[in-house]
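Exercise 7.
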Amino acid sequence: MTATTVRGIDHVGVTVPDLETATLFLSRAFGAEVLYDALRRQDGPNGGPDVERLLGVPAGTQQLAIRMLALPGTGPGIELFEYQGPRREPPALPCDFGWQHVALYADDLDAAVRDCVAAGAALLDGPRPLPGPEAGEHNRFAYLRTPWGSTLELLTYPDPQPWEATAARRRARPAPAAAAGTWPTDPDRLEPVSCAGRAPVPAAAGTWPTDPDRPGAAPSS
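Solution. The predicted structure, written as tokens, is:
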């Protein structure tokens, strides 16, 4: 066996059309919190030959803003990027090559789906039972599209799965939130963290969570 120092997924990078509205969606849908801005809008843009070589992007591509967020409980962070430049392709579909979806574990799948849809996501179908080696009485999943078009999976598998009966290793599962009632579907929870000092703007189901008060430059975190 080859030795490795890799311990797990640290974060998932997502390019979005607008950093502030994507932050508001993740805050409302999942209770995500802003950790820090790696690139503030007023300090950018970040571009040039060094950036183009580092990222393998076309000449003229510029990073406008970068922000790291944390989800409730433990697990990888979500790093948001906003770019401008000559190439702006639509998000990959599950049939396309490349990293094609992010899956988030939920204790209450139905409530998590409702939160996502209320925040602006579109439910593709389901929830459905997990099939085959992942099956179990309460094991289910659902696929959604974020407001900017990326594919998102929500799943839950509290019951034993058939594959575990013969496997020597168990699949990693996010630990519960530190305190009871912190999952965003809790009706008594505190309001999600405000974005750039402003409370999240309520959104109608199926609509992009536009922030009408969004300034031209994002304040420092």
